[in-house]
Amino acid sequence: MVPALDIPVVVADPDPVSALVLAEILAGTGAHIDIAEDSAALTARLARSPAPVAVVLVAPLPGTSLSAALAACAETAPGAARFALVDQESPTARIAALDAGADAVLALPVHAGELRSSLAAVLRRTADEA
After folding, report:
1. Helix or strand or coil: residue 126?
2. SUPFAM superfamilies under this entry (predicted)?
3. Number of Cβ atoms within 10 Å of the Cβ of 62
4. What is the pTM of this model?
5. What is the number of structural domains in the chain?
6. Which 8-state DSSP code applies to residue 63?
7. Which residues of 79-96 are buried (b: 16+ CB within 10 A; e: fewer)?
């Protein structure tokens, strides 16, 4: 069971339907979701207050590479947990996301429970380290 997460989360997904599905999945944890559809919107949302506690990036995001988007997250919201959702057929994409700074990488299509539990697990780990 995933605990209630009263936290701000940014979902960066170029597909509006997919973004809404991810937002609904994460809202079920109690998270407050903000959606970004491209790199400019992601940058704007990362700069908002309060800063996001987590960012979920669906690759590819228009206007940037996944590695550049992860770097922007690390620079603008350094404390945010970074999740990358990538093509399940590409271990190369999953490896690249981890090498670029993702805290967790999940394959698309993502299972709702796996996403919620992964978010909770990474946040638990980062809270333990603080």
Report:
1. helix
2. CheY-like
3. 10
4. 0.92
5. 1
6. T
7. ebbbbbbbeeeeeebbeb
Residue 11 lies in a domain: yes
Q: Residue 86 is part of which domain span?
A: 7-129
Closest CA to 62 of 82, 83, 43: 43
On the 0-12 / 13-18 / 19+ scale of CB atoms within 10 A, 27 is middle
User: Which tokens in the block code for residue 129?
Assistant: 């380290």
Domain at 78, CATH number: 3.40.50.2300
Contact by Cβ (8 Å): 30, 53: no
Q: Does the pLDDT value for residue 112 go beyond 70?
A: yes
Rg over CA atoms, the chain: 13
What is the per-residue pLDDT for 2?
Answer: 62
Residue 72, domain member (yes or no): yes
Residue 1 belongs to a domain = no
- DSSP secondary structure string, 3-42? PP---EEEEE-S-HHHHHHHHHHHHTTTPEEEEE-SHHHH
pLDDT at 130 over 60: no
